[in-house]
Amino acid sequence: MRTLVILALLAALMIAATCYESHESMESHEYLNPFLNRRRANDFIQSDSRLRGIAQERIRERSKAPQEYQRELCEDYYPCEMYAFRHGYAAAYKHYFGRRRTK
Question: Where in the cell is it found (predicted)?
Answer without folding.
Answer: Secreted
